[in-house]
Amino acid sequence: MTQHRRQFGSIRKLPSGRFQVRYLGPDGRMRAAPRTFSRKDEARRWLTFAEAQMIRGEWINPDHGKVLLEDYARMWIQERPKLRPRTVELYSLLLRLHIAPYLGEVEIGRLSTPMVRSWRAKLAQKSSDVMAAKAYRLLRAVLNTAVREDELIRINPCRIPGADKENNPERPVLTIAQVLTLAKSVPERYGAMIVLTTFACLRWGEAIALLRDDVDLAARSVSVTKAYSEINGSVLVVGPTKSRAGVRTVSIPALVVPYLQNHLANFTSPGDKALIFTGAKGGVLRRSNFRTGTRWSETCKALGFPGLHFHDLRHTGNTLAAQTGTSLRDLMTRMGHDSPRAALIYQHASSGADRAIADALDLLIEATEDATEEPSSEHDQDGDGIAEATDLAV
Length: 394
Description:
- The chain is α+β, with helices and mostly antiparallel strands.
- It has three domains: about 1-55; about 65-150, DNA polymerase, domain 1 (Orthogonal Bundle); about 175-385, Orthogonal Bundle (hpI Integrase, Chain A).
- The chain has 15 helices and nine strands.
- The protein has helices at about 40-55, 70-80, 85-105, 115-125, 130-150, 175-185, 190-200, 205-210, 255-265, 285-295, 295-305, 310-320, 330-335, 350-370, 375-380; strands spanning about 1-5, 10-15, 20-25, 30, 215, 220-225, 225-230, 235-240, 250.
- The strands form three sheets. It has a four-stranded antiparallel sheet, with helices on one face. Strands 5-6-9 form a three-stranded antiparallel sheet.
- A hairpin with a 5-residue loop joins strand 2 and strand 3.
- Helix 7 (about 190-200) packs antiparallel against helix 9 (about 255-265).
- It is elongated.
- The N and C termini lie far apart (about 70 Å).
């Protein structure tokens, strides 16, 4: 074996003809480069780069990167602060099904951009665009922590342009007439929930967590302070809203008031802390029970918009609110979306504008309300062009 001396580190030619690099690390230990090189000039460039890292204080102990990706990612999920239970469940699912089978046994320090690119391409062939994008974003977030906080690796190998983008199909938007027809087509105990969710832009978990004292019919407002999350398809956990801006007070159109009055009188237990929307036995309303109780799929199909998801009601409400011409800031506050400046800061200031949204919705509703008394067969047949849904149901 021929050894070549130089000022920093050494390069030697192995019997295989490849070149090995050794150098003295800042910790005083002799180390070998993680790979050998086919040409001497490649080995020399690697040594120059390693020396520059040490001079700039950017050298990372390669032993730190020997932790397996699956072990590190699992620990990352467990220790990440303020993750909602549903988010923990989603991350664990993505790790178990889409990341660990491909990359779980790879040491973090050995991950490379070509390796990540190959994984992402295989994943795109075997799962939906949505799941592939979510899995990629999770892996990138995990490795960002490995770079910035734990200093296990120098750079994040997740550098695939467009790999984090979801090609979601356009979700359907109902007309006001269709929303009211849907509310009148389901059993009475569910009609108010459909109308309120739509015109107050609520999420499912926010709607089923509402209590009597969250609703002020005189002021025509609903206070959203918490939300339910369903874990593993069975366990319901009440906790904070999806984001800080999710805590909000939403003005509701006048049309919603009689729906709520009827519902509170006939389907809600007495007491300020009673849940407004419950299952038939008075417990927390579950998605599965709602789907069964409303015969959701069959009802929506019969009305001309097959594949409609419950979340599409919120999407419809958001779209209708935007059509009133309100500002983006006020719209985001109503929806409960975070903004770069934190939407909660503007919540109080936008209360007047929020009432204007509700009043404007009243005008739209009044213009179409009469048409819902006897929906035409034409509406039933074509559904005003509602697209077929492709993601998770209700």
